[in-house]
Write a structure and sequence with these properties.
Residues 41-290 form the G-protein coupled receptors family 1 profile domain. The protein is built from eleven helices and three strands. With 313 residues, it is an all-alpha fold.
C-alpha cells in the first residue's frame, strides 16, 4: 500500500487524435459540428416522441431511450476532447479519468443491450402481430428498458473497482482522446490479468450475447416475412427493420473490432478510429437513420419544430 502511494500517478496525459496543431484546429471544428448535430438530433427525437401521443408505443419508447444513451455516450467523451484542444492542455486527473471510463462503459453497455431489446420488439411485431400489444405490455417494456441501466451500473462499477487496485507508474501518456479501459491497462505496472479476464467475460455478456440474440431474432423475422404472399407486404415488413439493421451494423462493427479482436491485430490508430465511430459518428447518425424513412417520426419532428417557430415568433 505504501509503494502504491509513492509510485501511482495522480494524472494522465490524453494524447488525443493528433499532436499536430493544424490538425487539432480542424478536428476541433469537425467534432464541435458533429457534437452539435448529435445533440440536436437525439434531443429532438426525445422531445418529439414524448410530446406526440401517437408515438407512445414500445418501439418509440425504446428509441427515446436509445437517443438518451447516444447523447450521454457522446457527451461523456467529445466535450472533454474539445476543451483539451481549446485550452492546449491534455491532462486529466486520475479520479476524472476513472469517472469518464465508468460512464463510457455505462452508456456503452446500455446501448448494446438496448439494441438487442429493440430487435426483440421487431420480432414480436412481425412474428406475433396479433399478440403484440398483449406481449409488449407497459410492464414488460419498462422492465426491458430499465434492466439494461441497472445491469450496466453494476458491471461498470465492477470495472472501476478492479481498476483502482492497479498501480500506474512511469509512463502516464494515454494514446487516446478519452480514458478507455484497454489503453489504461497497458500503462499499469502491476498484474492486470484479472481485469483482462473480466473484460472478456463482460464482452461476451454485453457484445456477443446481444449480437447472437439479434441474429436469432432476425432469422425468425426473415422466415416470417418470406411467408407473406404479397411483394408489397414483404417490402413493408422489411422497411420497418431496415433502420434498426443499419444501427446494428454501425454499433457492432466497431465494438467487436475493439473488444473482441485479438490484441495482436489491434493498434492505437485502429482503436481510436473505432472509438470515433462509436462515440461520435454513430450517435450523430442514429437520429437520421431512424427519422429519414419513418413517416410518423418525421411528422412528429415537423410538429415539434413548427411549434418552436410559432412560439418564438
Amino acid at each position: 500500500m505504501e509503494s502504491r502511494n509513492q509510485s501511482s500517478t495522480s494524472e494522465f496525459i490524453l494524447l488525443g487524435l493528433s499532436e499536430n496543431p493544424e490538425q487539432e484546429t480542424l478536428l476541433f471544428a469537425l467534432f464541435l459540428c458533429m457534437y452539435m448535430v448529435m445533440a440536436m438530433g437525439n434531443l429532438s427525437i426525445i422531445l418529439a416522441i414524448s410530446s406526440d401521443s401517437h408515438l407512445h408505443t414500445p418501439m418509440y419508447f425504446f428509441l427515446a431511450n436509445l437517443s438518451l444513451v447516444d447523447f450521454g455516450l457522446a457527451t461523456n467523451t467529445v466535450p472533454k476532447m474539445l476543451v483539451n484542444i481549446q485550452m492546449k492542455s491534455k491532462s486529466i486527473s486520475y479520479p476524472c479519468c476513472l469517472t469518464q471510463m465508468y460512464f463510457f462503459h455505462f452508456f456503452g453497455i446500455v446501448d448494446s443491450v438496448l439494441i438487442a431489446v429493440m430487435a426483440y420488439d421487431r420480432f414480436v411485431a412481425i412474428c406475433h402481430p396479433l399478440h403484440y400489444t398483449t406481449i409488449m405490455s407497459p410492464r414488460l417494456c419498462g422492465l426491458l428498458a430499465g434492466s439494461p441501466w441497472v445491469f450496466s451500473y453494476f458491471i461498470s462499477l465492477t470495472h472501476i473497482l478492479l481498476m483502482v487496485r492497479l498501480v500506474f507508474c512511469g509512463n502516464n501518456k494515454i494514446p487516446h482522446y478519452f480514458c478507455d479501459l484497454t489503453p489504461l491497462l497497458r500503462l499499469s505496472c502491476t498484474d492486470t490479468s484479472v481485469n483482462k479476464i473480466f473484460v472478456l467475460i463482460v464482452a461476451g455478456m454485453v457484445i456477443a450475447t446481444p449480437f447472437i440474440c439479434i441474429l436469432a431474432s432476425y432469422a425468425r423475422i426473415i422466415v416470417a416475412i418470406m411467408k407473406v404472399p404479397s411483394a408489397g407486404g414483404r417490402k413493408k415488413a422489411f422497411s420497418t427493420c431496415s433502420s434498426h439493421l443499419s444501427v446494428v451494423a454501425l454499433l457492432y462493427g466497431t465494438t467487436i473490432g475493439v473488444y473482441l479482436c485479438p490484441s495482436s491485430v489491434r493498434t492505437a490508430v485502429k482503436e481510436k478510429a473505432s472509438a470515433v465511430m462509436y462515440t461520435a459518428v454513430t450517435p450523430m447518425l442514429n437520429p437520421f437513420i431512424y427519422s429519414l424513412r419513418n413517416r410518423d417520426l418525421k411528422g412528429a419532428l415537423r410538429k415539434l419544430f413548427s411549434k418552436k417557430i410559432i412560439s418564438s415568433s
